[in-house]
């Protein structure tokens, strides 16, 4: 009589599952990644529904309630203009997360297209695209943000200006990673078989090559998401990001540049600093969980 152990039973189940089902099981077993995912979902949902649950005007200046410490009326106090910090924190999450998600999508999309074309075709196409990528990677980020922001200012809203600028300057690393993966994958026999039966280049890239590098793209997307939120917060803190009249976590954090606020009024800058830190940590933990779950060697 054969004894079935728990470990052998688990291996039997895994053999009957698809690679994506196995990856999902591995990810769900990562407690830190799951807690981070729940936290990120809560922050996103609360930020999205903020206009429907909060009725306070986030732009109205109230001189009589300037820089009030936390109380029952104002959960996290008020800022220098008398605006409720908690309300602005939720509204700020809408803008910061919008910038992060949109920039990540554009960066992954553009980087994947450039990297796939360069890696598959090679030769002169690869050389031209990679030299253009090198040009983007070597461009001074802050200088280009200021110049391009000044050119687009007035033609687009401030939020979309920063999204376009950050996205345009951040896709180079993704393109290089995708290119290296495509170069390795295109030497496999299934690609040669697809070419021999007359499949078009676009069909081979989309249906055969990209699905095999999708796990790498997903992990890079999580890392990029965190980087985009940090970029928006940093640029807004320096005064080159989201316009000051639009609440974002970076704009709220910019008030800490004043010594009086930094030293004696921590309730103004500490909440956005804490939520940025926790959000970035959550995204990084989710990325690590995805990396472990999607790693075929694990």
Instruction: Tally the helices.
Output: 13
How large a portion of the residues is in β-strands, by DSSP E? under 5%
Task: Report mean pLDDT, rounded to a whole number.
Answer: 81
The biggest sheet, with number of strands, parallel, antiparallel or mixed sense and barrel status, is:
none
Count of β-strands: 0
Helicity range: over 70%
Structural class: mainly alpha
Order of helices and strands: HHHHHHHHHHHHH
Q: Report low-confidence residues grouped into runs of 5 or more.
A: none
Integer-rounded radius of gyration: 24 Å
CATH architecture: Orthogonal Bundle
**Shape call:** elongated
Lay out the secondary structure.
Layout: H1 6-15, H2 19-29, H3 31-53, H4 85-121, H5 123-138, H6 141-152, H7 158-170, H8 172-185, H9 189-196, H10 201-238, H11 249-253, H12 259-264, H13 266-294
Task: Give keywords.
about 300 residues; mainly alpha; MetI-like fold; about 75% helix; about 0% strand
Describe this structure in words.
There is one protein chain. The protein has 298 residues and is mostly helical. The protein has one domain: Orthogonal Bundle (MetI-like fold), CATH 1.10.3720.10. Helices cover 74% and strands 0% of the residues. The protein has helices at residues 6-15, 19-29, 31-53, 85-121, 123-138, 141-152, 158-170, 172-185, 189-196, 201-238, 249-253, 259-264, 266-294. Helix 6 (141-152) runs antiparallel to helix 7 (158-170) and helix 8 (172-185) runs antiparallel to helix 10 (201-238). It is elongated. The chain starts with 5 loop residues before the first helix and ends with a helix. The mean pLDDT is 81.
């Amino acid at each position: 009589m054969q004894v079935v152990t728990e470990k052998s039973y688990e291996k039997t189940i895994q053999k009957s599952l698809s690679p994506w089902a196995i990856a999902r099981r591995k990810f769900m077993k990562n407690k830190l990644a799951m807690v981070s995912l729940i936290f990120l979902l809560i922050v996103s949902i609360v930020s999205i529904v903020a206009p429907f649950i909060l009725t306070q005007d986030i732009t109205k200046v109230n001189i009589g309630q300037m820089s009030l410490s936390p109380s029952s009326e104002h959960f996290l106090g008020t800022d220098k203009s008398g605006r409720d910090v908690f309300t602005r924190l939720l509204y700020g999450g809408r803008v910061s997360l919008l910038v992060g998600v949109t920039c990540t999508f554009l960066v992954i999309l553009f980087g994947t297209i450039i990297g796939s074309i360069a890696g598959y075709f090679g030769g002169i196409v690869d050389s031209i695209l990679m030299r253009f990528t090198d040009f983007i990677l070597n461009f001074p980020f802050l200088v280009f943000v200021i110049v391009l922001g000044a050119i687009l200012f007035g033609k687009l809203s401030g939020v979309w200006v920063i999204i376009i600028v950050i996205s345009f300057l951040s896709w180079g690393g993704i393109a290089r990673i995708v290119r290296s993966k495509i170069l390795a994958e295109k030497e496999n026999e299934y690609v040669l078989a697809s070419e021999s039966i007359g499949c078009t280049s676009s069909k081979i890239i989309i249906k055969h090559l990209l699905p095999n590098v999708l796990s790498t793209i997903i992990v890079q997307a999580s890392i990029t998401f965190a980087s985009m939120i940090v970029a928006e917060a940093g640029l807004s803190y320096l005064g080159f990001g989201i316009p000051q009249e639009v609440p974002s976590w970076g704009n709220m954090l910019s008030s800490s540049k004043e010594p009086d606020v930094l030293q004696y009024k921590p309730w103004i800058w500490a909440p956005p600093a804490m939520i940025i830190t926790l959000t970035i940590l959550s995204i990084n933990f989710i990325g690590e969980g995805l990396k472990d779950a999607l790693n075929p060697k694990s």
